[in-house]
Design goal:
The structure holds two protein chains of two kinds. Chain A is of the alpha+beta class. Chain A is built from five helices and five strands; from the N terminus they run ββαβββαααα. Chain B contains 18 helices and 34 strands. The chains are: A alpha+beta, B alpha+beta.
């Protein structure tokens, strides 16, 4: 298939790529742009390891083509911190031990952040639903729920930590 | 949403058991952590593996000439490119080394590697697989152990009679005599399923062989040292010429310390092509062509007195070994041992048979045979209590292990908090009051090991070693071979080192996952690292500290009866803590005194005189509140409480994470994670059909931590985080028993099984009514 030129905006930076139009967004991010924070854990769009934010919403980047993401703001785990300062949700994950092997964490953080973008005061059930698409084999999720809850309650904003 | 209480806490520590953040945290939450999956080297090729579509077949011929013509294909390897070494992790026992990984002449399960291709892209490698022509002679197959032991069953490994791979016998006391004392005897058959490790990072390796004859392999492993040694064996190389790198590993759970196809095939390809080769399993490959928790058939006969005193038990187990041994031989032993836990039996006899079949090999998985053992034992104990009209908690309590108890000929229990576990679970049950009609609570007790004593790997090294080096600015390099796989071992070792040396966790850099620079260690399995590597780290830190304090003494002018110590970076006389000096100053003076040589402390641990199995045992009792929809048979976990004795907790956050995580995996084993096979083929090798606990299914995981002191462990610590995989399946079963009076003899407990049991129960009741 003929390659195509496209521009992806990832973490505020435009990247020009010349790629096969069938390339998945996750492949573009990892293999072509080289941001390997985003992971892959399945071939069936079921694990959430590849979750990124597109215009602030959580999307599994193995479920869309890179071409479909053109013109949107894509955020990956690498885009959460600003000038070496961690985002509140990242601090919350560290403080609650919300990762073990860490392989699910990049996707989990994106789902968590997207949930908080949309819902400032999620209930415990809403938090659980917000990360239902993300499998974590290590933690049993409760520490992740505690982290998101803490972040939502403002426990990890700049002034308080 | 979760309650964490501590019973009899010890609080004499500065670092230990405080709220220490995981030291790999920033790397893991910012995407900086580089897993094998992320490794990319200059000139790297991508490998793909051709797998057998047959459960049992002879390979007559492999022709890959057509594949080689595809542009971008660099090379293909088959078993003929290897030394054909039959390898295994039980290196002391040659007949248990039975797997070539890349098969030379015969395949024994669907998915077994036959050939591997390296190409400039993964797609080209994948496409090339279609152009490899293999001629097979398909052989008759057998899939279940009880079929495979029949005389007429096909022979899977040459000369292995009735396909019996390993047998294990454990016995103590006069068993028949003890049965003679029993006033009530009950026997049951159980069937325990397999389970996929389902690490989020699938098996992956990047191998790079260079013309100097050196091989470097980045891989997702639970034991870098094992893979160094295993690869040396199959490649005919010296261990020292192989370097394994595994800084970040996306999960292990017992599935990543045997040689896998990604490691072996990438190494063989790289050796042939002198280019780095990366192989990452797809999720499907990770399901069908790795290994799994060992499925088991359990026969249990138990004799008790009317007052609930346990007299004797006899167990016979047939496990589905699948095509190769792997760690299955160890699982066969441990299931038999932990089946006796946590009770005192006057007579106990276990006979285990591991049987080869033409299915995915089975092996160790978190719990190592004990979840199966407890599913059977803890349900039967509950049924016996009901049969005799006894309180199930009190019946368990009166028969339980206690400090100082000797499991005859097997183990001495030096610390045991199970008695208090019963109190805590009782309190929790009482606090719940009356439950809704569709809910019930089930309980289950167990214990687990803190590392294995056995050395079937035949290592000449200490089981664990550590080196502590102190830099002139007071920072500390800690080198360990303990493998960080997410369980938090780097953090745990840093905490032990900081506590022993009297510095902060932030002063310590942990170096692990690199065989060139770290001492050999058997790695992360059997819950061994906290106790074994922890002891080595403590010893190394104390060695370094002693050397430092010698200088401090010399310059202090104190009477020799005074003791010096270091806490929080302050070197002082214990009797006069205000008088002292800064740690860094002391380090600088010591350096000068040693002619500039750095202070290096060394430590190691190998268990001695600790019985047959493990240096120490954890104990726990779990209660699970279960709700069932009678229409659909669907299970929902509503709440849980675990009372848990892991000795002295070291890594507070890590401990909570381990207990919650183990519980989620155990719950999955209990009612969700089903692996159905048809004609040797796994029917659900993907995450749509293989169901696991998700955030919405996870109940609160309340914990009551019973702090005991284990004399063999560092600061009194023992196992945490693997043992809790053991009780849950039985606890769920017991809840169903109390809810409906049904007995679930197979796990995972699936909705259709519950519906069938309810239907059967109704029919029986109607029959009874009819007779009346
Ligand atoms: S990789 Fe599993 S959902 Fe995208
Ligand atoms: S931390 Fe390992 S999968 Fe979530």
């Amino acid at each position: 298939m003929e390659k195509r030129l496209l521009t992806l905006n990832v973490n505020g930076q435009d990247y020009e790529l010349y790629i096969n139009p069938k390339t998945l967004l996750v492949e573009a991010i990892r293999d072509h742009i080289g941001l390997t924070g985003t992971k892959r854990g399945c071939d069936t769009v079921s694990c959430g390891a590849c979750t990124v934010m597109i215009d602030g919403m959580a999307i599994k980047s193995c479920s869309v083509l890179a071409m479909q993401a053109e013109g949107y703001q894509i955020t990956t785990v690498e885009g959460l911190e600003v000038n070496g300062k961690l985002a509140p949700i990242q601090k919350a994950f560290i403080d609650n031990g919300s990762y073990q092997c860490g392989f699910c964490a990049p996707g989990m953080l994106m789902s968590a952040q997207a949930l908080l973008n949309e819902n400032k005061n999620p209930t415990e059930w809403e938090i659980r639903e917000g990360i239902e698409g993300n499998i974590c084999r290590c933690t049993g999720y409760n520490s992740i729920v505690r982290a998101i809850d803490g972040a939502a309650k403002g426990k990890y904003t700049e002034a308080k930590s | 949403m979760n309650k964490y209480t501590v019973i009899n806490p010890h609080s004499k520590f500065t670092v230990l058991n405080t709220h220490v953040h995981n030291i790999d945290g920033v790397a893991k939450v910012t995407g900086r952590a580089e897993y094998t999956f992320d490794v990319k080297l200059p000139g790297m090729l991508y490998g793909k593996i051709l797998r057998s579509p047959h459960p049992h077949a002879k390979i007559l011929n492999i022709d890959y000439s057509r594949a080689m013509e595809i542009p971008g294909v660099y090379g293909v390897v088959t078993g003929k490119d290897t030394l054909g070494v039959k390898q295994g992790i039980w290196r002391r026992y040659k007949d248990l080394c039975d797997e070539q990984v890349l098969s030379v002449d015969k395949v024994r399960y669907i998915g077994e590697p036959i050939a591997a291709v390296a190409a400039i892209t993964e797609e080209i490698a994948e496409k090339a697989l279609d152009y490899i022509d293999v001629e097979y002679e398909v052989l008759p197959s057998v899939y279940e152990p009880l079929d495979a032991i029949k005389k007429e069953a096909p022979e899977i490994h040459e000369g292995v009679e009735r396909n019996i791979n390993v047998t294990r016998h454990i016995e103590w006391g006069e068993v028949e005599e003890a049965f003679g004392e029993a006033e009530y005897v009950r026997e049951d058959w159980f069937k325990c399923g397999g389970q996929a490790h389902m690490c989020m990072e699938t098996r992956a390796a990047v191998a790079s062989y260079t013309p100097e004859g050196k091989l470097t392999v980045w891989t997702s492993t639970q034991s870098a040292y094992y893979h160094q040694a295993l690869l040396a064996g199959v490649l005919g190389m010296r261990e020292g010429d192989i370097r394994i790198l595994a800084k970040y590993v996306g999960g292990g759970f017992g599935g990543k310390f045997e040689l896998d196809g990604a490691q072996f095939c990438s190494a063989v390809l790289s050796k042939k092509l002198f280019r780095p080769v990366k192989i990452v399993f797809t999720r499907e490959e990770d399901f069908i062509a790795t290994k799994r928790r060992t499925p088991m058939f359990y026969y249990v006969r138990t004799g008790v007195k009317k007052d609930g005193t346990l007299c004797a038990r006899e167990a016979k187990v047939f496990t589905n070994g699948g095509a190769y041994t792997g760690m299955g031989a160890t699982a066969l032993y441990l299931t038999g041992f932990f089946h006796s836990f946590p009770y005192r039996w006057k007579g106990y006899r276990y006979d285990g048979y591991r049987v080869y079949t033409n299915t995915l090999p089975s092996t160790s998985m978190r719990g190592f045979g004990a979840p199966q053992a407890m599913f059977c034992s803890e349900q039967q104990i509950e049924w016996i209590a009901a049969d005799l009209g006894l309180d199930p908690i009190e019946m368990r309590r009166k028969n339980s292990h206690h400090e100082g108890y000797e499991v005859p000929g097997q183990a001495t229990i030096a610390s045991c908090g199970i008695d208090q576990c019963y109190d805590e679970i009782r309190k929790w049950i009482d606090s719940k009051g009356k439950l809704p009609a569709n809910r019930a609570i089930g309980i289950s007790a167990c214990g687990f090991m803190s590392g294995g004593i056995f050395n079937w790997f035949d290592t000449p090294y200490s089981f664990s070693s550590a080196v502590v080096t102190i830099n002139q600015d007071g920072t500390v390099e800690l080198h360990v071979g303990a493998q960080e796989i997410g369980q938090g071992s780097n953090t745990t070792m840093a905490i032990i080192c900081a506590e022993a040396l009297g510095v902060k966790v932030g002063d310590i850099k942990v170096h692990s996952g690199d065989t060139d620079h770290c001492p050999a260690d058997l790695g992360a399995w059997g819950s061994r690292q906290t106790l074994m590597t922890g002891n080595a780290v403590k010893m190394a830190a104390e060695d370094a500290k002693k050397q430092l304090l010698e200088f401090a003494y010399a310059q202090s002018g104190l009477n020799i009866v005074y003791d010096l110590d270091i806490k929080n970076g302050w070197v002082h006389a214990i009797a006069r803590p205000e008088r002292g000096e800064d740690f860094v100053q002391l380090v600088r003076k010591a350096l000068r005194g040693k002619d500039g040589q750095r202070i290096v402390g060394r430590g190691y641990y190998t268990p001695h005189r600790k019985g047959m199995i493990s240096p120490a045992y954890s104990y726990m009792l779990q209660g699970v509140e279960v709700e069932v929809d009678e229409e659909t048979g669907k299970i929902k976990l509503c709440d849980s409480m675990t009372a848990h004795d892991c000795g002295q907790p070291i890594n507070h956050l890590g401990l909570i994470g381990q207990l919650e995580g183990a519980f989620s995996m155990a719950a999955g084993y209990g009612y969700l994670e089903y692996m159905p096979f048809e004609d040797g083929k796994l029917m659900n090798p993907n995450l749509v059909d293989y169901k696991m606990i998700r955030a919405t299914e996870m109940p609160p995981a309340n914990i009551a931590e019973i702090d005991t002191y284990e004399p063999e462990g560092p600061y009194g610590a023992k196992e945490a985080g693997e043992g809790l995989t053991n009780p849950t399946a039985a606890a769920i079963g017991n809840a169903l028993f109390h809810l409906f009076g049904i007995q679930m003899k197979e796990c995972p407990i699936r909705p259709e099984m519950i519906l069938n049991a309810l239907k059967e129960k109704k029919e029986k009741e109607q029959e009874k009514k009819g007779k009346k």
